[in-house]
Amino acid sequence: MEKTKSVPFNGTQEQEAMLHAVIDELREDKGCLMPIMQKAQEIYGYLPYEVQKMISDELDVPMEKIYGVATFYSQFNLYPKGQYKISVCLGTACYVKGSGDIYNKLMDILGIAGGQCTADGKFSLDACRCIGACGLAPVMMINDDVYGRLTPDELDGILAKYM
Fold first, then answer.
1. I need a surface site. Which of 13, 22, 95, 158 has the fewest CB within 10 A?
2. Helix-strand-coil percent breakdown of the chain, rounded to 5?
């Protein structure tokens, strides 16, 4: 049973033209794949399948290679980020205090997996290794707002503030 909701690709013709211009400019450079992927992410905000396919077709590089680069380097995102970016600390202090339960409950509430964005573009969910607020463990951030000493029961109320 699939729990995640996919976000439809909404690229524009202007974005596609910008990507083609970048590819045309850089294609002859040795090692051009990473710079092209970085520019593509700047243009689109992330690297969805459709953008990876355009790069693959234009450079005649297998999709497997592009996907491998996109998933190996943490700078690349395969999903868009939401209006509200939720980051749950899974560092040692937070994890020992139950941040794994917080993260799992957020995935259930939002209907997405970590690294993904809700279909309405409102929330995205990521794990991080340390927010630097270990004394408040477990901790999560929503954009710049920090929430500490969390329990799973508090999450619905916190998310309601952002609806």
1. 13
2. 45, 10, 40
63 and 32, same domain (yes or no): yes
Q: Which two structure tokens, joined as six digits, stand for 137?
A: 């463990």
State the Cα–Cα distance between residues 83 and 160, nearest whole angstrom.
Answer: 14
When divided into structural domains, the chain yields a total of 2
**Domain, as residue range, for 65:** 13-72
CA-based torsion, 95, 47, 45, 69: positive or negative: positive
**What residues are designated binding site?**
89, 94, 130, 134
- What would the pLDDT profile of 129-160 be if each residue is shown by its tens digit? 898 999 999 999 999 999 999 999 999 999 99
Q: Which of 81, 103, 82 has its CA nearest to residue 91?
A: 103
Determine if the pTM surpasses 0.85. Answer: no
Does residue 106 sit in the same domain as residue 43? no
Same domain, 26 and 91: no
| Sheet strand arrangement including 140-142 | 123-128, 84-89, 140-142, 145-147
